[in-house]
Amino acid sequence: MTPSARDALASRLRAAGSVYAEDEADLLLAAGGGEPVRLRALVQRRLGGEPLEYVLGWAAFDGHRVRVTDGVFVPRARTAVVVAEAARRLHRYDRVVDLCCGAGAIAVALLGRVGALDLVAADVDPDAVAVAAENIGDRGIVVAGDLFDPLPERLRGAVDLIAANAPYVPTDAVATMPTEARDHEHRVALDGGADGLDVHRRIAAGAGEWLRPGGVVVIEVSREQAARSATVFEACGFVVDVVHDETVDGTCVVAGLPGA
After folding, report:
1. What angle do CA 229, 127, 27 make, to 5 degrees?
2. Spatial separation of the C-alpha atoms in residues 235 and 143, rounded to whole Å
3. Largest CA distance in the chain
4. What is the reported pTM?
5. pLDDT of residue 140
6. Per residue in 132-164, pLDDT tens?
7. pLDDT of res. 3
8. Which helix (H) or strand (E) holds 8?
9. In angstroms, rounded to a whole number, what is the distance separating the alpha carbons of residues 101 and 120?
10. What phi, psi does 4 have (nearest 5°)?
């Protein structure tokens, strides 16, 4: 495609509301592979409001291309704060659970940063489980079920770290999310209950049974909810810190189980 055609595509994307129209144009052109019919189909999907990541079939996260499929939660850059805080507490072959794993983005990033891990990723959404299994491959196992329910029994009391990007959007706020999220991602990956912290409470209540003494939970939360989430984990016996990374505008609660 000529530069003028590329500029024309960027102009169409900009008119449709894209903030990063030039970058999107380049990605769509690359995905089109020089085939006009394929490119036209991709552009129409994007102009129709589909998230760019679904159109491309992948999302960029922590230096990786993570495959995503329709409905599966799209990894956000801010979740890199969870990866960074988890990675600096891990060693090769540690036992790690990626809870509410979505496409497995946290797991993929931790494997990239730390190396081989005894890794289990879990999600209640079967579509997420399928794509996470594809992303993680033979570097870990992916299980389907509600929070801790599907975890292998061998992990009980032995997990070094639980990393989680559990849903934390308050129910009433889901309707105010960008349309790409609320109209395309499965609600189970977004809705955190009345105050957004229902799943945080369940993780805090159950994590102690699975962590080894001294084990850690690293869980994403909004900056505004962080103090309340921290209180939830403190009430369950954890020693808690809140970390905010201005670079990615991400916040997480780091909750350590006493002992060891």
Report:
1. 90
2. 29
3. 63
4. 0.93
5. 98
6. 999 999 999 999 999 999 999 999 999 999 999
7. 63
8. helix 3-15
9. 9
10. -65, -35
